[in-house]
Amino acid sequence: MKQSIRILVVEDENDQRQLIAQILSAQAYEVETADSVEKAILMIKERPPELVFSDWKLGQLSGMDLLRYVRREHTDMGFIIATAYGTITHAVDAMHAGADDYLAKPYQRQSLLLAIEKVVKSVALKKQNQQLVSQLSEQQSLIGLVGKAPCMQKVYQRVQRVSSTDATVLIGGESGTGKELAARALFQLSERKNTPFIAINCGAIPESLAEAELFGAEKGAFTGASQLKIGKLEAANGGTVFLDEIGELPLLLQTKLLRFLQEGVISRLGQQGEIQLDVRVIAATHRDLQQEVKAGRFREDLYYRLNVVPIHMPPLRDRQEDIGRLIEHFLVMHSKQYRAHPEPLSSHAKKTLLDYHWPGNVRELANRIERFVLLGDEQELIEELNNPAPSTSIDGFTLPQEGIEWESFEKQCLQQAMTRNQGNRTQAAKFLGLSYKAFLYRLEKYQLV
Ligand SMILES: Nc1ncnc2c1ncn2[C@@H]1O[C@H](COP(=O)(O)OP(=O)(O)OP(=O)(O)O)[C@@H](O)[C@H]1O
Ligand SMILES: [Mg+2]
């Protein structure tokens, strides 16, 4: 850790300066030295160190002059001042002026190292906190994504962190939570932003055409292939491909995709050789891919290949504080789009929108607001939203034709019960008609505790 820490030692006595530099270098600090305030300022301007260790008395000027300069320009740079024996008032002045610590001469090697170590730590902490504060207070949106709930901040941080890399990203989350928007934001922030972004909805291509669509086909590769077809992956060469609804990809194609992700090569249908591609992959799905793997519908190795960096888009009900912001956003957006001037919402309507649990997430909210802007009918806007809670009796409940994923269903029931009851477990248990013990057991089972 010490390797990356640079310390500027400012001392006008040659022997002293060399000695201090030696002691610090032996601890693997990166040391630079200056013999005057002027020189130190030039060096700080050129390449600011993490910490300055300065003598008080430095020719015409003093360590205080340097300290004032540092505090003006670099609030979080560490600063330790060495004062002569018997000049404690100097030390006090320096601390008032913002020095992090002082050493009274003569000092032991050990006290020098201790003081440095302490200040290095506090500087690192200061920086970390500042980053956190600025991230939390500033990031209200990210390229199209509106929202500043803590769970969205996490999304922004992750998107920003991985945007500069070529790492494969898998975006999960319920329908309408903004998965596609997040993928586009990632692309916009990446170095590939001026190269192609090709979105493929894996669920929308008929299985028989999917291979040619993705990987391309040579002329005559199958009946009807009258000319060479370039696949979407090849078309995205040099750019980014967005594999939307990746959970719907047929198993056979999963194998081919895996090969592409592992080796970076594809073969067109009917092609003998292979083509090397340079494509960044972002995938998204509303399904729980781990469940899909368990059920044998998704290749486990492909899942791991895709899941290098997972990003989870939180459901709207988990970021209720963003609903107001989103309403405003869509009102402005659609009013511009339709050149409409809708009446302001009544407080009853606002409250209804805020209290609703939005199973269709942001998309559902956006659609409702769009309709409201067009029709200006507040009644319709909040229609059916007044009674979001399911009826307590589920007599007459029928399973869907295609069956359900029991565990995912149960997990969602538990999560929703917790959200609706503001995290109060006793109430959530009652809400589901379970004993507290039975409820807790299930929370633990799904690691929701
Ligand atoms: N945080 C957000 N801020 C602004 N608009 C959003 C946000 N999240 C989603 N939207 C809007 O909601 C709609 C749905 O978003 P998107 O298509 O990205 O969701 P999705 O997760 O891909 O949904 P699906 O699983 O249904 O495909 C879009 O119109 C999008 O612009
Ligand atoms: Mg989508």
TrEMBL record:
InterPro entries: AAA+_ATPase (IPR003593), AAA_lid_NorR (IPR058031), CheY-like_superfamily (IPR011006), Homeodomain-like_sf (IPR009057), HTH_Fis (IPR002197), P-loop_NTPase (IPR027417), Sig_transdc_resp-reg_receiver (IPR001789), Sigma_54_int (IPR002078). Residues 6-120 form the Response regulatory domain. GO terms for biological process: phosphorelay signal transduction system; regulation of DNA-templated transcription. The modification 4-aspartylphosphate is found at residue 55. Residues 145-374 form the Sigma-54 factor interaction domain. The keyword Phosphoprotein applies. Keywords: ATP-binding, DNA-binding, Nucleotide-binding, Phosphoprotein, Transcription, Transcription regulation. Pfam families: AAA_lid_14, HTH_8, Response_reg, Sigma54_activat. GO terms for molecular function: ATP binding; sequence-specific DNA binding. This is Acetoacetate metabolism regulatory protein AtoC. It comes from Shewanella gelidii.
